[in-house]
User: Fold this.
Amino acid sequence: VGQDLREKALFAMFYALLFITIYISGRFELKWMISGIMTAALIGAIYIFTLLNVSIPWLIVAALIVTLVLFWFLELKYAMGAIVALVHDVTITVGIFSIFDKEFTLAIIAALLTIIGYSLNDTIIVFDRIRENLRKYHKKPLEVILNRSINETLSRTILTSLTTLFVVVTLLLLGGGIIHDFAFALIVGVVVGTYSSVFVASPILLAWQGRQQKK
Assistant:
């Protein structure tokens, strides 16, 4: 993949994460305005840095760090949990491809964007149940509610992931060389995305409560 196409792919993934931020913040925390303003500010900053000819990979890394810092100060805990999980999924998938020294083609870029959507769906399912249980059992400790919510959604998450893996493994074995890397990336992404919604996104809510209790 050419350098220009790689840069466009990085921007596509970053903007996807930004719009996910707006959706998560609005759906779970009703902070549409705050997340919208933050997104507009980040897009403006990216445009300015682009004019200054800052290297695109470093620009995206800096923007992600600034985004997480803004999440922290604006108290967008659900958005922070979702974004950290998605960045975790993409980073591990890219890392595995680097270990196997595979070329980044259009198919792999498409797979990474697909992984973002798949992992986000898993995270939203868990977050929805957490929100419902927070209303039902508001007197119970958060760790109890998180544990209950994860247990209630775990069977659905595992069944969905196993079904998806069955299809993707079939693509890997029978799809031929053209689709091989795409299917391999999806296998890694589905496995990583399944556990990140449970072991990465949800614990951030617990860490957030610990931060508030220390204040």
Q: What stands out?
A: Residues 108 and 182 are 5 Å apart (CA to CA). The chain has a mean pLDDT of 83. The helical segments are 3-29, 32-51, 56-74, 77-99, 106-136, 142-174, 177-214.
